[in-house]
Amino acid sequence: MHCNRFVAPPLSRRQMLERCATGFGAVAFAGLFGQSGIRAADAATRTDSYAPKPTHFKAKAKSVIFLYMDGGVSQVDSFDPKPLLTKENGQPFKMKMEPTQFNNNGNTLGSPWQFKQYGKSGIPISELFPFVAESADELCVIRSMTSNFSEHTSANYFLHTGNGQQGRPSMGAWFGYGLGSENQNLPGFVVLNGGLIPPGGLDNFNSGFLPASFQGSIFKPDTEPISNIKSPDIRAGLQRKKLDLMNKLDAALLQQTGHEDALESAVSNYELAYKMQTAVPELMDFKNESEATKKMYGLDAAYPQTRIFGTECLIARRLVESGVRFVELTCPSSGGDRWDQHGGLKKGHADNARAVDQPIGALLKDLKSRGLLDSTLVVFTGEFGRTPFAQGHDGRDHNPFGFSIWMAGGGVKGGMTYGATDEYGYKAVENKLQMHDLHATMLHLMGMEHTKLTYRWGGRDMRLTDVFGNVIKPILA
To answer: Residue ranges of the domains in the chain?
Structure first.
């Protein structure tokens, strides 16, 4: 029976916008996201996502430079020499073989490269990396890293986000969320794209369920790192007045809709984009860099890929010098399939090393000479290693069971090795580590307790290390 006294309650502004999504609500929403704006809400109702945040304890490092070796560097050809491989080269492999990506397994494959001991520490490094070897006493080589995945996409997600599935926040986003930024004119998380976006795509650098203001900003190492970065050809004061007006409009919308992460992130990102119009061109201007510095990084190298990665490394130094928290570098294309040599190991690994070795060696020396290495954590790793036996006759398949990475600076002991694989370099047998341990240690060096860096999502306090991870205390200075 109908009650004549029934009166429908009035709609709130938010309910009205939700129900009119295909009407003027959509127009208002598009207007917000289709034009530049600046941080709009009052400080009493929201916090500045880019502002520096207090650490859980005193940090050793302020920034991270993450040298991502896409595809997987072979540990037995780089930082984990195995004389037994040379001795038994070409013979049937004597350990049980785990299933591999392609199951085209051949015989034992000795390294085509010689190893030498470098520095006072005597760390053995292959002739693939003569420039990095010059800084051997700064390196902490970890030989017992493992992954939970042997396929590139899942392994990349695991390396970058601590989870093998798509959609989780990248570690760079977690660092920005936990620490904020020391430079309000540049993103807290920058990815320098050398030309190879890894399997798994840009989701390796996304913010996931964290606010979008923490996602990675993709820069190209050239004169225009970001499309349309140059300021519009209008009077400087006029552009500021337009943005101030948009600020008022955005503030009014936020007051109506309440505390909305998506809206606030958009406003923050557009304001940052405005500031980057000045900051980024200055960042990319090398006129104040000496010719000796540019030559050291390989900017005049005959090999184009060395020039590309050298530019990335020099920009990375300038970024951390400017207070950017997390900088990730991806590899340039050397004509092969990244470090993923399923065949043609000798040429493929040699080309990739030729591209990155001189620039990385220069980066380590440059950071140290400027007093930045102590406050900058440099990490060198791929998503997994490679088999000590051949795929076919001259390649190596994926190996997640034991591989090498290295760290330098930022509170890590230099001139040491940690962990070990078996006599063939196949599986970790001493101080076995997983990605969660690496992430926990990186956060620790930046002053963050990994179990306390959480974000409420889906009814659970989420963290980069999930429910795992231990700080690798023996490598801490």
So the answer is: 63-225+284-475, 235-277
